[in-house]
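User: Teach me something about this protein's shape.
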Amino acid sequence: MERIVYDRMAELDSRHWWYRARREILARVIEAKAKPPAGARILEIGCGTGHNLDMLGRFGTVDAVEMDDAAREVASARLGRPAKTATLPALQGVERGAYDLVALLDVLEHVEEDRASLVSIAARLRAGGRILLTVPAHPWMWSAHDVVNHHKRRYTKRGFRETIEGAGLEVEMLSYFNSLLFPVAAAARLAGRLTGKEDSDDKLPPAPLNKAFELLFGLERYAVGKVPFPPGVSLVAVASAS
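Assistant: First, the predicted structure itself:
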């Protein structure tokens, strides 16, 4: 990703509506679908500035992997010990058969070899372990946001399932999310395309709007994984070794 993306992440990840609501949604998915055991060992791959580490820490002991040096420094401070560096799909130095939960949150779209990466991640799971994944949805929504974040692709729901299953994994849950705000996001992407004024979508909105978006997006935590969701900006999945 561009340096500015990490800088904005470090600046905004505790305040921006998207980060805040998303963490609570993912916590509910972990509780309801991933169900790590007490004292679980958890790994986040591509942890960025570490903004998910406290949330993941509710469920066990967390290790982290991040390639960007500056982001890894911030994540290590949050983690209280050094985050590791390793590339996908190799995951050099990451212990095999060690983790009850591996989180790959908006990372797979950055990786050229997505299926091979999932195969490698599966090898790091303990028996009964699971992988929590999120990716951006809808290739037609491709925009400046994807360019500045160095995305390789956005996924269709079917394509995401095929990628997971093609890696020899079983899909235990697959759902859209960020669906309530999808019409707003889709309209903004299409307007930007028509006017030629696309941006990277990561600015902090005015406080009242930021709070409103957080409340609205956050409502999804009560239903995601329980009822079918209409199309959303993102996809979330829980997968296990077959």
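Now, about its shape. The two ends are 33 Å apart (CA to CA). The chain has a mean pLDDT of 93. If you'd like, I can walk through any region in more detail.
User: That's plenty for now, thanks!
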